Amino acid sequence: MQSNNKQSYATSLVLVGCLFFIFGFVTWLNGTLIPFLKTACELNNFQSYFVTFAFFISYFVMALPSSAILKKTGFKKGMSLGLLVMAVGTLIFIPAALQRNFQLFLLGLFTQGLGLSILQTATNPYVTILGPEESAAQRISIMGVANKAAGILSPIILASILLKNIDAVKEQLEKTTDGIAKDQLLTEISHRIINPYIVLTVVLVILALLIRISPLPEVNDEEENPDTIDTPQSTSIFNHPYLFLGALAIFVYVGVEVIAGDSIISYGTSLGIPIDEAKFFTSFTLGCMVAGYFLGIFLTPKVISQETALKICAVLGLAFTAGVLLTEGRTSVYFLAALGLAHSIMWPAIWPMSLKGLGKFTKTGAALLIMGIAGGAILPLAYGHLVDTMHNQPAYIILIPCYIYILFFAIWGHKIGYKKPVKQ
Question: What torsion do the CA atoms of 409, 410, 411, 417 make, to the nearest 10 degrees?
Fold first, then answer.
């Protein structure tokens, strides 16, 4: 019987790991889409960061409805539904490319985000409850490796298609005075995205069907967070202020992660680095994140607590940002990529620190944390505005207050209003 439980546990981890791979593959395409659509749709820096806005604002819109959907469908059907909604979003890219319509691209990104919101609202607490709470950060770190491994691959694969010879194309566009010839060239660039997104749509539909017929177990509210609190505190979610502080921590964390990962290609090219080299920079960032995830898997909770890991990561974020701001050329790019290491343990630590002791409020709490992902919509847009008004490098000053808040949450914020659960 114990062997069957271990097999079921391993199977569940593998299947959920596949979902986290999909999260990473789709999410980290944005770093390539920003310079691609900036060229294809003739955008400035501020406009180009509407790519991240459209994608991540959907989490804010869909988080609470996702919780309601999951209460109706359960985790397994909800995961399958999320994948199908994502497939609709990737399919929208085809008419968007044919028309070279930036608004339609944004609709596709928004729809993908809606699907991912449903998917993540289900899978993140699912990973948390698959085992003991004290090792939750370790399990989420394993999922993070799958997520970021996909993130490393996706920009390499897509960038080789979308950004091929893009510098030469830009020069040709600048020299072309004939409006018709310029429009034809831009249309040719836009069409590059069609075949990759047809393939991605097919993969999402197939995975949705596989999840639907998979042996993933269902869980109920009590299983979501077995530590229930036998106090009046459990009567309202507002009696858990650390949850709301955690949602804000997720907001600023996702914002800085997206800024670092999705701006690094554009930052590299602003320094005169050829796009054929700069297109790999997002993968460098994610490589640093994967290294951090492996450290998290081996160190937490045996060597250091998830709280201590979060403190260390926040301090590293401040140090590496100082490196970005105070150094020049490729050195500053390397510091920007190194932020991936600082970000690696933030999500795995903030999530269980925010959901601890919520009991029957776990689904709603998870939805609030998912709403925090909207930081990936707001903060990069603010960064893009700073780039247009200042310059790429000094605009990274926006990261400093974000890391300071994460450090506050790691030291004090996660303790505010928390009472140790009494197991019944």
Answer: 50
